[in-house]
């Protein structure tokens, strides 16, 4: 049985990058059949959240709007990601969990570069292709008078978890996250082709508080057929959902004899989620969705809901990343 732990262990592949770090990792043991979390301090500084950017590693981010590469310390990059990917008013433990996923994503990308095209000299872009990142200048413009308050919360979340990453069998994980579930997360192979033992479908009932938990989109019949490359049946029906995933999203649908995956439909029609149902209303198709995002990994609204119930960031991560 695999369990999630936080232990005072340094990855040999990462030690040259981050000299002292707490590593959240999944290991195999026969001692227990329950998930347990243990936190051990490593070289804790006397000052709370002591941080010197000059001692941090440098990362290179391609700024898509500016068409240039920005180099900055890792933890400052993580701050810019957390500030861009999660609302700073979310609970502190949720923000910490987001900091962990953001840092893990970057460290994994450094150790195991992905096959995504990035300009020479850059490690990642600042878009959803990798992680959305905004600089302090951009955040000041975005937040206005709330900047100091919001940035203080982001700094606390990042610096109180600095150096920590999520690993599985000694390697940084694919720390996927998304906005809002439909009540369950997805198994990784049900949305992508790759199966990861720590990206399993789990319950996430807290997401019902999200403003994007449900949505409806109207698409004309002509646009529907054009985007999906199908011809709707003459009987006025739309199509048949023939299979759903463990997470309740559409796995397969047949429209006019053509089989499509739920992901294909979601992406081609630009739907919030692959958990959908539809009805034909004259020359329009009404499509109702539940959730927002691909559904794999940590739900941000789920994390916030758990934090509201008093759960720690470790509890949140243990729930969404299973071994």
3D architecture notes:
One of its GO terms (cellular component) is outer membrane-bounded periplasmic space. This is Amidase enhancer. It holds the Pfam family SpoIID. With 323 residues, the chain is α+β, with helices and mostly antiparallel strands. It has two domains: 2-42 and 57-208 and 296-320, no CATH class; 214-290, no CATH class. The protein contains eight helices and 15 strands. The protein has helices spanning 74-85, 92-111, 136-143, 147-159, 221-228, 262-269, 300-308, 313-320; strands at 2-7, 23-28, 58-63, 68-73, 124-125, 165-168, 171-172, 177-178, 214-220, 240-244, 250-255, 258-261, 276-281, 284-290, 298-299. Strands 1-2-6-7 form a four-stranded mixed sheet. A three-stranded mixed sheet has the order 4-3-5. A hairpin with a 5-residue loop joins strand 10 and strand 11. Helix 1 (74-85) crosses helix 4. The radius of gyration is 21 Å and the shape is globular. Mean pLDDT is 86; it is low at 1-47.
Write the layout of secondary structure elements.
Elements: E1 2-7, E2 23-28, E3 58-63, E4 68-73, H1 74-85, H2 92-111, E5 124-125, H3 136-143, H4 147-159, E6 165-168, E7 171-172, E8 177-178, E9 214-220, H5 221-228, E10 240-244, E11 250-255, E12 258-261, H6 262-269, E13 276-281, E14 284-290, E15 298-299, H7 300-308, H8 313-320
Parallel strand pairs: 2-6, 3-5, 8-15
Antiparallel strand pairs: 1-2, 3-4, 6-7, 9-14, 10-11, 11-12, 13-14
Helix pairs in contact: 1-2, 1-4, 2-4, 2-7, 2-8
Pfam family, one: SpoIID
GO biological process, one term: sporulation resulting in formation of a cellular spore
Domain Sporulation stage II protein D amidase enhancer LytB N-terminal: 64-168
């Amino acid at each position: 049985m695999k369990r999630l732990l936080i232990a005072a262990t340094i990855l040999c592949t990462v030690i040259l990058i981050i000299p002292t770090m707490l590593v959240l990792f999944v290991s195999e043991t026969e001692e227990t059949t329950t998930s347990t979390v243990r936190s051990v301090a490593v070289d804790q500084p006397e000052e709370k959240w002591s941080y010197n950017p000059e001692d941090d590693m440098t990362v290179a981010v391609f700024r898509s709007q500016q068409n240039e590469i920005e180099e900055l310390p890792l933890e400052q990059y993580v701050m810019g990601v957390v500030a861009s990917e999660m609302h700073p008013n979310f609970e502190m433990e949720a923000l910490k969990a987001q900091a962990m996923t953001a840092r893990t994503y970057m460290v994994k990308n450094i150790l195991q570069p992905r096959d995504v095209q990035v300009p020479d000299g850059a490690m990642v872009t600042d878009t959803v292709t990798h992680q959305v990142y905004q600089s302090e200048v951009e955040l000041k413009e975005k937040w206005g008078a709330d900047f100091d308050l919001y940035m203080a919360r982001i700094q606390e979340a990042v610096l109180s978890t600095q150096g920590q990453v999520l690993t599985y069998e000694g390697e940084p994980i694919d720390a996927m996250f998304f906005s809002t579930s439909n009540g369950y997360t997805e198994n990784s192979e049900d949305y992508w082709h790759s199966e990861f033992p720590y990206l399993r479908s789990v319950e996430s009932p807290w997401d019902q508080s999200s403003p994007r938990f449900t949505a409806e989109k109207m698409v004309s019949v002509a646009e529907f057929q054009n985007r999906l490359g199908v011809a709707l049946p003459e009987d006025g029906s739309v199509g048949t959902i023939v299979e759903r995933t463990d997470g309740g999203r559409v796995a397969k649908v047949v429209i006019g004899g053509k089989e499509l995956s739920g992901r294909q439909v979601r992406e081609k029609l630009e739907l919030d989620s692959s958990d959908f149902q539809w009805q034909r209303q004259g020359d329009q198709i009404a499509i109702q969705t539940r959730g927002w995002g691909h559904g794999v990994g940590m739900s941000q609204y789920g994390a916030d809901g758990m934090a509201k119930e008093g759960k720690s960031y470790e509890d949140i991560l243990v729930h969404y990343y299973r071994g």
